[in-house]
Amino acid sequence: MRLATWNVNSLRARLPRVLELLAKHDPDVVLLQETKVAADQFPVGELAEAGYEACHHSAGQWAGVAVLARRGLGIADTRAGLPGEVRAEEARWIEADVPGLGVRVASAYVVNGREVGSPTFDEKLAFLDAMAARAGDVRAAAGAPLVIGGDFNVAPTDADVYDPGAFAGATHVTAPERERVAAILEAGDLVDAYRAVHPDEPQFTWWDYRQGHFHRGLGMRIDLLLVSAGLAGRLRACGIDRDLRKGTKPSDHAPLLADLQDAT
Questions:
Q1: Quick one: average pLDDT of 146-150?
Q2: Using an 8 Å Cβ cutoff, are 238 and 257 in contact?
Q3: Helix axes of 119-141 and 175-188: crossing angle, nearest 10 degrees
């Protein structure tokens, strides 16, 4: 099983790069964020031609999330929106079963937060709280194993930023944000797939477009794949495709991919 998550920063602008990801890696499931398309403009046809069906939660020019599944695996029991989120109209959460893999997956685009102490920061914390509650509900239901992937807009530890001092007092690295990511892991009995495979290796998934940050290695690891503990034992690899941050019209994020052994 191969899983991928990617904040594409506009699916219409980045569709050729998404098709490149599909052709290059042949993932079973792709979780997309910041699709920035209206519901009637989501490229269902182009993705179908590439061999993928999709479900999506779209809100026009802002936010937007989607789940892609390789044809034949199926998408069922979709659920858009997250109980407890402050602005449901922003389309930041979608989840679905993938019957062919026996997993439930969710794509999340967490509120940025802007400035610590601002109303938007409070909305970010509320969204993370809602994610923890939902992860706990799915765990309690004892259904299919859960995967949550997406742009969390939180670097879980200081090892996930290029220079902790450069972010002092800023969003993405505060204790309240990190505590809530830890609460999601605990509530859902989830494991950070990248850290399970690379406990000490610093790698990043996001780099500012400005001032050559990507080429200078000035990034953050804010895109995560969280997998149920039962799935974590099947992890074989987890990595970041930096090449898809290069080239024509790149997103400011790179995709994160994880490989798991098939269930026996």
A1: 98
A2: yes
A3: 10
- Confidence (pLDDT) at 189: 97
Rounded Cα distance between 185 and 132, Å, is: 8
pTM tops 0.85, yes or no? yes
* Token pair in block for residue 192: 């950070």
Distance of alpha carbon 191 from alpha carbon 197, whole angstroms: 10
Structural domain span for residue 191 = 2-260
CATH of the domain at 181: 3.60.10.10
Pair 16, 8: CB distance under 8 Å = no
Calpha distance 65→82 (Å, rounded): 12
Distances (CA, A) of 10 to 6, 41, 210, 253: 11, 12, 18, 11
Q: pLDDT, tens digit, for every residue of 37-55?
A: 999 999 999 999 999 999 9
Count: domains in the chain: 1
Nearest to 188 by CA among 257, 133, 150, 107: 133
| Tokens of residue 66, six digits | 């989607």
Which of 52, 97, 109, 160 is labelled catalytic? 109
Which run of H or of E encompasses 5?
Answer: strand 2-7
The average confidence (pLDDT) of the chain is: 95
Task: For the chain, report the end-to-end CA distance as a whole number of angstroms.
Answer: 12
Residue 109 appears among annotated catalytic residues: yes
Q: Is 151 a catalytic residue?
A: yes
The more confidently predicted of residues 166 and 195 is 195
Residue 177's region, left for phi above 0, alpha for psi from -120 to 50, else beta, is alpha
| pLDDT (mean) for 71-94 | 95
Gap between the Cα atoms of 66 and 215, Å rounded: 29
- Residue type for 176, please? P
Of 28, 151, 252, 259, catalytic: 151
